[in-house]
Amino acid sequence: MSASPIPAAQGAKQVTGAPQMTGAQMVLQVLREQGVTTLFGYPGGAVLPIYDQLYGQGDIRHVLVRHEQGAAHAAEGYARSSGKVGVLLVTSGPGATNAVTGLTDALLDSIPLVCITGQVPSHLIGSDAFQECDTVGITRHCTKHNYLVRSVEDLARTLHEAFYVAASGRPGPVVVDIPKDVQFARGTYVTKRSVPEHKTYRPRVEPEIARVEQAVALMAQARRPVFYTGGGVINSGPEASKLLRELVQLTGFPITSTLMGLGSYPASGPAWLGMLGMHGTYEANHAMHDCDVMINIGARFDDRITGRLDAFSPDSAKIHVDIDPTSINKTVRVAVPVIGDCTEVLRAMLDLWKARDLKADASALAEWWRAIDKWRGRKSLSFRPSTEVIKPQHAVRRLHALTKHRETYITTEVGQHQMWAAQHYDFEEPNRWMTSGGLGTMGYGLPAAIGTQMAHPDALVIDIAGEGSILMNMQEMSTALQYRLPVKVFILNNEYLGMVRQWQELLHGKRYSESYSHSLPDFVKLADAYGALGLRVSDPADLDATIQAMIDEPRAVIVDCVVSKEENCYPMIPSGKAHNEMLMPDDWDVDLDRVVDAKGRELV
Amino acid sequence: MNAPLSPYTAPPTPRPVSSHTLSVLVDNEPGVLARVVGMFSGRGYNIASLTVAEVAHADHVSRITIVTAGTPEEIEQVTLQLDRLVPVHSVTDLTLRGEAVERELAMIKVAGRGEDRQEALRLAEAFRARVVDASTASFVFELTGAASKIDHFVELMRPIGLVEVSRTGVAAIARGPEKTP
Ligand SMILES: Cc1cc2nc3c(=O)[nH]c(=O)nc-3n(C[C@H](O)[C@H](O)[C@H](O)COP(=O)(O)OP(=O)(O)OC[C@H]3O[C@@H](n4cnc5c(N)ncnc54)[C@H](O)[C@@H]3O)c2cc1C
Ligand SMILES: Cc1ncc(C[n+]2csc(CCOP(=O)(O)OP(=O)(O)O)c2C)c(N)n1
Ligand SMILES: [Mg+2]
């Protein structure tokens, strides 16, 4: 296609006497105008002009990470815990490619990021120049949108647009690739206010009221309703959680949430069923299976939720609230799609419910709650306690008990410990839980904790980690120490890539191929080497004191919490099974061939 | 019991697959075609035909016409996924809307002597193909029409001495006075 160059500052008002400055100065000016106070990055040749502008200024705090993947996850943690756009700055070539995992993570979890990458000078693009890579080509598939800025006259407008695209509609990561000559060139600065409305990207926020009416009418007729809520409620902001709580209370319906939506409804709330899905509770999954009206608010029918599609909640009429039309009917057909922002839709639902003084059938609802209470009675999150060895579930429960009265933020790595954290740490507020759900990126938790701590300097930030995952971005301890960030790394050390080991046990005849964590470092000494405090605990009797010591320590801490090695994470819906075919904690002597057939083994 | 159905192993259910022509108006910015094509390859949809050219120079708008095949659900996803791309102005499913004119241009080289030449010319006339190049041993025909008509013509030329074919892919536009949204 003829790639006709876009004329300079197209569409933007040319203000006479508008400030002239270099591209690098524009970058800083846009960041200031966009309210950015924290920037995660790593320097290199292709971004030196921008680093030169960062030098000696006081508006924007640059956090020097130790690996660009860390910058991306830190920006994610910052964004998810604060509701702002996370920003990172990396150099060309390896700087950009190192950021790719974090960008993909942000894409799958709908996290707003702006990633500024340096590029080789324009005239060298395409010549295999030193540290050249096709950044827009590489990141096209792992960003919501990306730009290569060809002229300094386009730079400010493009950067403003990047912030708009990252944060609007379904949030996501946006890359702006800036050749070095553009950073040096002088041009006209375009202010945020003078950038015209976006020509093509204007996602719908306000719902169609007729759809909300249909949804509410369906809810009022429900006999066995359930709210299935997700990350969209968190994306929408704290107001959405408030409205959700009110709607749940008003209707008296039970509520479950995905991994990404935890905290939008309080775990201590009476209508809470716990998380649903592959490692969700018995009551949440059975309620989803047996319901007659499912109200999906900002969740995307992920395969960890649906399991076998043909057996997924077979008898329910489904309402789906989502800001992204592609989420509707993607895997599950729904009766009432409502396109819009969760806050707006929830407000409209509440208004209608109140205005029409609606009530669901009280006796049907009471009967539904009796069924749910029976499922609750299975106590699907129970585990065999021990006085000899620390059970990982118990460790998470104690962590919760000792931190719940504080402003505490939890991040995780990926694996069994992540699921135990989701199951046993009871979240009461939104934006307190940062985890890699969609991509499942080991190594996410420590940098995300650093980003979270930057956004909430006085809060307690804990990365619940596995001994395998933590080693993937361990270098970021150095960042934590440099900025005196008191992040706490709480390793549930089972000496296994536990989630892999569990699947090998259940699906591959206990052949533990390469899933033992050999040659682990001494985490206490490692903490010491970084200048942090290292603690080890293996006796359940010492657990509380160790957690307390971790909390009380003003520096960063690594706790090596030695837990039972072969614990499995239950409940579990094996891949390819229906919601009512769960493996329960008391099923440990199951006949494995009965549990998972050959087809199921092929799934992930 | 049925085989487990999941997004990964869902067997290709024999559901009716039909061909749809999508008209996509995009901002003509660098890389926009890669974005559109990448969406198809990245999500496993197919492209049977693709044409693209700038249609409003002053506004930097290009029209991409894509012919793709899929179940109604797949076509709906394709449409929504295209619409979600930031530089896309609009996506119209011309097949769903009905009433669209679809045309393709082809150039077809045929070589032969004697009776074969006569036969080629006779068929060309019947199909209203124009001769745009001729030598003592060959013709190049230019033919415009529905893709099926071109297919048909090419098949008739094959035994006569078909050498090669170049086709533009389908361009399409909705009938009637309105502008596609
Ligand atoms: C080892 C492992 C095990 C897992 N097991 C489970 C499990 O047992 N249970 C579980 O739930 N998950 C599990 N997950 C996570 C799972 O993979 C998915 O990431 C998660 O289920 C998706 O959550 P979600 O549906 O809330 O969607 P998200 O990915 O959070 O997407 C949000 C949805 O809301 C929409 N949206 C965004 N913003 C708005 C807005 N402002 N208004 C309206 N809509 C909006 C988006 O378009 C999108 O459709 C696991 C992950 C790992 C790594
Ligand atoms: C980058 C990356 N590589 C591989 C995987 C696959 N994987 C998922 S969980 C897991 C094991 C994690 O081990 P550990 O951190 O010790 O956690 P545990 O399950 O033991 O709690 C692996 C290898 C992944 N999710 N991410
Ligand atoms: Mg482990």
Give a topology summary.
The complex is a heterodimer of chains A (604) and B (181).
Chain A: E1 20-22, H1 23-33, E2 38-41, H2 48-54, E3 61-64, H3 68-82, E4 86-90, H4 94-108, E5 113-119, H5 135-139, E6 145-148, H6 152-167, E7 173-179, H7 180-184, E8 186-188, H8 209-221, E9 225-229, H9 231-236, H10 238-251, E10 255-257, E11 272-275, H11 282-290, E12 293-297, H12 303-306, E13 317-322, E14 336-339, H13 342-355, H14 362-376, H15 392-403, E15 408-412, H16 416-424, E16 433-434, H17 445-455, E17 460-466, H18 467-470, H19 477-482, E18 488-493, H20 498-507, H21 523-530, E19 533-537, H22 543-552, E20 557-562, H23 592-595, H24 598-602
Parallel strand pairs in A: 2-3, 2-4, 4-5, 5-7, 6-7, 9-10, 9-12, 10-11, 12-13, 13-14, 15-16, 15-17, 17-18, 18-20, 19-20
Antiparallel strand pairs in A: 1-8
Helix pairs in contact in A: 1-2, 1-6, 3-4, 3-17, 8-13, 10-13, 11-14, 15-16, 15-22
Chain B: E1 18-27, H1 32-42, E2 49-56, E3 61-70, H2 72-84, E4 88-93, H3 94-97, E5 100-111, H4 115-127, E6 130-135, E7 138-145, H5 147-161, E8 162-174
Antiparallel strand pairs in B: 1-3, 1-4, 2-3, 5-7, 5-8, 6-7
Helix pairs in contact in B: 4-5
Magnesium ion binds at residues 415, 466-468, 494, 496-498 of chain A.
Computed Rg of chain B: 20 Å
Q: In angstroms, what separates the terminal alpha carbons of chain B? A: 48 Å
Q: Which two protein chains have the largest interface (Cβ within 8 Å of the partner's Cβ), and how many residues from each? A: A-B, 42 and 36 residues
Provide the residue-averaged pLDDT of chain B.
Answer: 92
Q: Shape of chain B, please?
A: elongated
Strand content of chain B: 35-45%
Please explain how this structure is put together:
Chain A has 604 residues and is of the alpha/beta class. Chain A has three domains: 20-194, Rossmann fold, CATH 3.40.50; 209-376, TPP-binding domain (Rossmann fold), CATH 3.40.50.1220; 392-562, 3-Layer(aba) Sandwich (Rossmann fold). Chain A has 24 helices and 20 strands. In chain A, strand 4 (86-90), helix 4 and strand 5 (113-119) form a beta-alpha-beta unit. In chain A, helix 3 runs parallel beside helix 4 (94-108), helix 10 runs parallel beside helix 13 and helix 15 (392-403) crosses helix 22. Chain A is globular, with a radius of gyration of 25 Å. Chain B has two domains: 18-98, Alpha-Beta Plaits (2-Layer Sandwich); 101-172, Alpha-Beta Plaits (2-Layer Sandwich). Chain B has helices at residues 32-42, 72-84, 94-97, 115-127, 147-161; strands at residues 18-27, 49-56, 61-70, 88-93, 100-111, 130-135, 138-145, 162-174. Classes of the chains: A alpha/beta (604), B alpha+beta (181). At the A-B interface, helix 24 of A face helix 1, strand 2 and helix 2 of B. The complex binds flavin-adenine dinucleotide, thiamine diphosphate and magnesium ion.
